[in-house]
Design brief:
Layout (H helix, E strand, L loop, with lengths): L6 E6 L5 H4 L9 E7 L7 H23 L3 E7 L4 H17 L3 E5 L5 H13 L3 E5 L3 E2 L3 H7 L2 E2 L5 E3 L10 H11 L5 E2 H10 L14 H25 L3 E6 L2 E6 L1 H9 L8 E4 L4
Helix pairs in contact: 3-4, 3-9, 6-9
Length: 279
């Protein structure tokens, strides 16, 4: 019914079945997002074989979950790119939170790199991440076919403690997201123009349209607010770098700044999505 809180799980998926499915035999869930590899990202004989193997587990898990009456949505992303996974998981969490739903993340049914990125996103958004223990590991192709790499009854689950990940304020996240789209960086005047275009409070006037005296006055005020209130803090925390080039100050985003921009949900992930087959 519309308006009722739903329970949603996000499950990044590798060559696993038990770890992705068995926990749902013991809990009620409305919807599961299976985040899995985009087969179009990589080519070559080895990639074709791996993509086919992943497709097998995608369909096996999807069919099992839909058979339990759970809505399944497949989301395909570059699982080997940390920023893409951060963007994808964060966007899913934000979208479900807007609907007032409870979100959980299974970080044990995928590869290590994806697991790290997914857990970071979950903790940044205060979502409970959990680990499904394996009772043992598959020892034959038949066991792997039936259970995936890990064999588990799904009853031993460890909820992870949520570490506090300090995110910057909204305006700083907007700036980091925009800087992430410009590898060469932006001048401080370009950042001011962007903040005005976004309608950010405190940057209401387009000073470029004013006469010389008023333009200079507004520009100085805005630059002081931007530099002292935002950029100095972001630079101190290692998220941006400022450098002087002629008369301009160029601001570029660092690796940690890109992580925060990806977590913010302000960078649309490059994903494709589809629903699972109907029950």
């Amino acid at each position: 019914m519309e308006g009722l809180e739903e329970t949603v799980h996000i499950v990044p998926l590798g060559y696993e079945f038990d770890r992705a499915v068995k926990p749902f035999e013991h809990v009620k869930v409305n919807r599961v997002y299976l985040v899995t590899i985009d087969p179009g990202r990589y080519t070559g004989p080895d990639a074709v074989r791996k993509n086919a193997k992943q497709e097998f587990f995608d369909m096996k898990v999807t069919e099992a979950l839909t058979g339990m009456g759970i809505e399944v949505r497949l989301v395909r992303v570059d699982m080997f790119d940390v920023l893409s996974v951060l963007q994808c998981i964060s966007s899913l969490i934000i979208a479900e939170r807007v609907q007032g739903n409870r979100v959980f993340l299974n970080m044990s049914a995928c590869g290590r790199l994806t697991s790290v990125a997914a857990t970071l996103a979950a903790m940044a958004h205060h979502v409970t991440a959990y680990y499904v223990w394996a009772d043992r590991y598959a020892e034959s192709p038949d066991e792997e076919h039936d259970h995936g790499l890990s064999i588990s009854d799904g009853t031993k689950i460890r909820m992870l403690e949520n570490l506090h990940i300090a995110r910057p304020d909204d305006v700083s996240e907007i700036i980091l997201a925009e800087l992430s789209r410009h590898e060469g960086g932006l001048t401080t005047d370009e950042i001011l123009a962007f903040l005005h275009q976004r309608g950010v409070e405190g940057y209401d006037v387009d000073f470029r349209l004013l006469d010389t005296s008023a333009r200079r006055r507004h520009q100085i005020n805005y630059l002081m607010r931007l530099n002292k209130g935002i950029l100095t803090r972001l630079e101190r925390d290692g998220h941006v770098v400022r450098r002087r080039v002629g008369r301009h100050t160029i601001v570029t985003v660092t690796g940690s700044g890109k992580y925060l921009a990806s977590i913010s949900g302000m960078i649309p992930p490059s994903t494709s999505s589809q629903r699972g087959p109907e029950v």
